[in-house]
Amino acid sequence: MTDNNTRETDEGSSGVEIETMRELERLRAETDSLRAELDETNQGVLALYAELEDQADQLREASDLKSRFLSYMSHEFRTPLGSILSIASLLSDELDGPLGAEQHKQVAFISTAARELSDMVDDLLDLAKIEAGRISISPAWFDMFDLFSALRGMFRPIVDTSAVDLIFEEPVGLPRLYTDDQKLAQILRNFISNSLKFTQRGEVRVSARLESEDSIRFAVTDTGIGIPQELHGALFEDFIQVDSPLQKRLRGTGLGLSLCKRFAELLGGRVGVESEPGVGSTFFVVIPLALAQEPADEA
To answer: Start and end of every Histidine kinase domain (predicted)?
Structure first.
């Protein structure tokens, strides 16, 4: 009886061991299968990373080629445009003999077209420099009276005072700024030029006020055609232009406002627009009063 019990116990133990072995084999097979799947997934991930890196290199190369093309093209255009402007100026001054009224109109048309092309070239060159990281900031202390005076003198010859008044509000009581005055002036020039283009009657007003204790807001407000709300978000993107009958008669690259945005960011600020169709627009830039801390402020 005892032998029978022992035999049954041994047979039971053997059955458990066999079942355990089978389970281990099954687990080992699942582990091997999982390891193979992981290896395959890792290889796929590595291949994807390599492909993404390759695409990133191609994008960087394409961006570099585009920047170089814009730079080379801009430089190549500058020389003939400068010659056209110089010759037009000589003709307008009648150094080689008097011109008739119609001839003066034709020379003025040539000068205007050449200046517009020159502005486009400058915009393209600035874009190429920014994308290539070759734009530098040169901050210095300056007075806003001087900035507004320079802008006023620049636009005086081209403003049709019979139809549009260009008004500069005196920046009374505002502190001096420590920033790149040339970049700030370029932003405001673009704002003013756009406002003058799209304002047939009324005024374009340039103003400045403190936005906070450490920032200042420059604004250019016009009584022009205005811009629909749905277009506000895209205005400061590259090559964007407002679709209007007036726009179709005016040349431009659609880069001016985009460059304003990039220059404002370089100055530590931001740009924005408030506009209503048929009422007018306000383009503004907000920048810090001081771009960087000076070791010793001047008196």
So the answer is: 72-291
**Termini Cα distance of the chain:** 116
Q: May I ask the CATH architecture of the domain 140-288?
A: 2-Layer Sandwich (3.30)
Portions of the chain given CATH number 1.10.287.130: 1-135
- Our CA dihedral for 137, 262, 57, 47, rounded to 10 degrees, sits at 120
For 118-176, the pLDDT digits (tens) are: 777 777 777 777 776 777 788 999 999 999 999 998 888 777 666 889 999 998 889 99
Q: Which fold has domain 1-135?
A: Helix Hairpins (1.10.287)
- DSSP annotation of 158: G
**Sorting pLDDT into bands at 50, 70 and 90, what band is 72?**
low
What are the backbone dihedrals phi and psi of residue 203, each rounded to the nearest 5 degrees, phi first?
-150, 160
Please give the Cα distance from 252 to 235 (Å, whole number).
14
Tell me the chain's radius of gyration from C-alpha atoms.
34
Q: Determine the 3-state secondary structure of 28 from DSSP.
A: helix
| Residue range(s) of every CATH 3.30.565.10 domain in the chain | 140-288
The percentage of the chain sitting over the pLDDT mark of 70, rounded to a whole number, equals 80
CB 223 within 8 A of CB 199: yes
Q: Is 54 helix (H, G, I), strand (E, B) or coil?
A: helix
Task: Output the CA–CA distances (angstroms, integers) from residue 31 to 41, 44, 175, in the order listed.
Answer: 15, 20, 73
pLDDT at 297: 46
Q: Is 79 exposed, middle or buried (0-12, 13-18, 19+ CB in 10 A)?
A: exposed
Poorest-confidence range of 12-16, 49-53, 242-246? 242-246
